[in-house]
């Protein structure tokens, strides 16, 4: 037996489905309400009369509960006191027809920072390849020093090889001269 001594639960209840006609009537009522609000803003208050009476005349078969669904239900003293909290975020459920999929999407802070980081890295690499960064200048200077050292080492090696060849040629001449005597 469940809590509270009641029998059964809510699982066996019959489900209520909204018919397509009721959905169409609700959509038309919402469009009519939006039009009336726009006209009131343009023409001023009280220009058209009471919008609730007109709405009830359009949707006479719907109950008063539907009128309450359009207004947010307030708990406690919220209905008595108007609170303007700038930090409070009012959550509104967007309908599929209201979603803007083609418009520009706002990126989160992390995504923006990641993209900026990648762009900065690409910019730095372009400047580095062009030799405009401090690191690139230092690398080029280091490479120039190494190149000079290698050239000097190659010249020295070449001179040593020539000196060795000259010494061996001179030694062979001496040997050939000494042998010819």
From TrEMBL:
<feature type="region of interest" description="Disordered">
    <location>
        <begin position="1"/>
        <end position="117"/>
    </location>
</feature>
<dbReference type="GO" id="GO:0003677">
    <property type="term" value="F:DNA binding"/>
</dbReference>
<keyword id="KW-0238">DNA-binding</keyword>
<feature type="compositionally biased region" description="Basic and acidic residues">
    <location>
        <begin position="102"/>
        <end position="117"/>
    </location>
</feature>
<feature type="domain" description="Casein kinase substrate phosphoprotein PP28">
    <location>
        <begin position="85"/>
        <end position="162"/>
    </location>
</feature>
<feature type="compositionally biased region" description="Basic residues">
    <location>
        <begin position="1"/>
        <end position="14"/>
    </location>
</feature>
<dbReference type="InterPro" id="IPR019380">
    <property type="entry name" value="Casein_kinase_sb_PP28"/>
</dbReference>
<feature type="compositionally biased region" description="Acidic residues">
    <location>
        <begin position="60"/>
        <end position="69"/>
    </location>
</feature>
<feature type="compositionally biased region" description="Basic and acidic residues">
    <location>
        <begin position="50"/>
        <end position="59"/>
    </location>
</feature>
<feature type="region of interest" description="Disordered">
    <location>
        <begin position="151"/>
        <end position="181"/>
    </location>
</feature>
<dbReference type="InterPro" id="IPR039876">
    <property type="entry name" value="HAP28"/>
</dbReference>
<feature type="compositionally biased region" description="Basic and acidic residues">
    <location>
        <begin position="151"/>
        <end position="167"/>
    </location>
</feature>
<dbReference type="Pfam" id="PF10252">
    <property type="entry name" value="PP28"/>
</dbReference>
<protein>
    <submittedName>
        <fullName>Ventral anterior homeobox 1</fullName>
    </submittedName>
</protein>
<keyword id="KW-0371">Homeobox</keyword>
